[in-house]
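Exercise 7. Predict the joint structure of the components listed below.
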Amino acid sequence: MVLTGAEIVIRCLQEEKVEHVFGYPGGAVLFIYDALFQQDQVRHVLVRHEQAAVHAADGYARSTQKVGVALVTSGPGATNAVTGIATAFCDSIPMVIVSGQVPTAAIGQDAFQEVDTVGITRPCVKHNFLVKDVRDIAATMKKAFYLARTGRPGPVLVDIPKDVSMHKCEFEYPQDIAMRSYNPVVKGHQGQIRKAVQLLLEAKRPMIYTGGGVILSDAAEKLTRLTRLLGYPITNTLMGLGGYPASDRQYLGMPGMHGTFEANMAMHYSDVLLAVGARFDDRVIGNPAHFAEEPRKIIHVDIDPSSISKRVKVDVPIVGDVKEVLDEMIRQLESGEARPNPEALAAWWKQIEEWRSRNCMVFRNSDDIIKPQFVIQKLWEVTGGEAIVTSDVGQHQMWAAQYYGFDKPRRWLNSGGLGTMGVGLPYAMGAKLANPELPVACVTGEGSIQMNIQELSTCRQFRLPVKVCLLNNGYLGMVRQWQELFHGGRYSESYMDSLPDFAALARAYGHVGIRVDKPADVEGALREAFGTHKDELVFLDFQVDPTENVYPMVQGGKGLTEMILSAEDL
Amino acid sequence: MRHVISLLIENESGALSRVSGLFSARGYNIESLTVAPTEDASMSRMTIVTTGSDDIIEQITKQLNKLVEVVKVVDISEAAHIERELMLIKVRASGKDREEVKRTADIFRARIIDVTESSYVIELTGNQGKLDAFIGAIDADLILETVRSGICGIGRGDRVLKV
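Solution:
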């Protein structure tokens, strides 16, 4: 069948079973939008800013196993998309971004709305393509989806000049794909896995530390089974929350800069550390030199060899898909006779329970002023812990991560690597479209929400009943916290004056807006949002304590055991 | 430590900038980089000379392998190998210097490939040390222009970098 390049793009999306595309039209993509108009298999969600299109597609991907798809025009359309692409890249999210480009003859002529999109995005994509011939579109789209979802996932950009989208050729979607330069490892090395299992069984102070790789590989079930089989303590990083049920006794909470006392102490003093789909990030292990002071054997399972021995030396590296490797570990454990040493394990748990008894997550609640942690606890109660929670970046993000116990994977969406303010609302849009049956809450701050607040309009157009929970403290809270602790209380530009009346603003967009001032009203407002107004977008403006800080805290550059547990420690 | 990394990469536009961009983005050194198609025109071979600790070199090879268009990466300096670099050097050659330059070129087994009344262009291949020595042997005031290719490297004996 002879089709135009634009029609081929849409046919490729159909072949890949894409249901939703997030985008914004413009000159260079007019033919693609025309082809989109003449079919109804792929639904387009019109955002209000290209950054949000990419974030929404990213949120869609994070909350499902699917590849998120965004469509933007050339020039400013592409540059607006860059923050979204970099955000997805840092967290290894599978996505395909189709961008329009000026006609091939105009490339390099400083044409209207021309930028070197492939050049600009090169360092923040898994791979990108400039398609110069209509006959290459189908194969390139096939490669893009394949690259995005296999190996260590990531965003792939396909740049299509306007004339290429207009030219015609015979369309046939390739069935198979073979790339001599790209063959990601799936199964882990048997011998290495055997060594790892041996080491785990010999451990006296074992610890399991898992990250976003477990979520991306859909390995939560396998991880839970292995962890229970061993009876070892476990911690999930910010990107890995929900990889193991937070309500389980073996779970020690999140590690790192704002992790729990028990998780950090157990990480530091373990003698065998099993790291799965995690990358020893600076926000997780603090100072690597301090971390290395305590001798321990490290087993590291990761799909990406370059993640292994990058920040810490690893004793047993295992390159492979996390799910496959965990499965093999379980198989070897179950088929063998050996079991962990019960005495050593009992002594280790006794030590851990002692650390846990410090009760580091306790906060002083108040009857007069709303504590942000209290809002998150109530959000958990009201949603029965079943919601998809998206967050922006800052204090509210940490409180949501700390106080909403995630029992399931793909329920917690945040920008962990790049730390992009403004992702929360578009993530919630993508998640709600992908999971219409689940409640979706966006926990945000008054700084972050204003970075993509225009998307309230998109939510209205597409009837997306997400619940925005704004923890409004009138400050760029995390900046203020660092200024208070490390910059002599000089609050340079961290106070947000002239804030809008958010509830009224939400109403102006056609939504429900509620301002909450008193602790006693928190639960009622949440029940109203998730009950009475179940099918509407509700914007809850919680006026929270402006002085509250996130604890525990490991200061940047310090070691994991050097924690500030509460304001009293200062 | 100095390392010579050889790689095969799909011969596509932008491939070179993916490699050079990787080095600049991650703060790795490039001493020299050469690239040209192989006998299979769909693939290019690159020789990169870099310096770094063992940990950094390990990361460099891993990161290069991660690039989608890179087919194979080998640190050829890990074993016996040969390095060659080409230099073209234009020198002033008049009066008594004319004969002296010619003699030096002969000693280094260099070839004079362009002659005018006042200058020579000399072609010389060898490892970096030989090229450096030749430059050292010529009076600095006589040198008008030098251009060096950066090194090409290949493993000795049975070691072959091929798909």
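Discussion. The mean pLDDT of chain B is 96.
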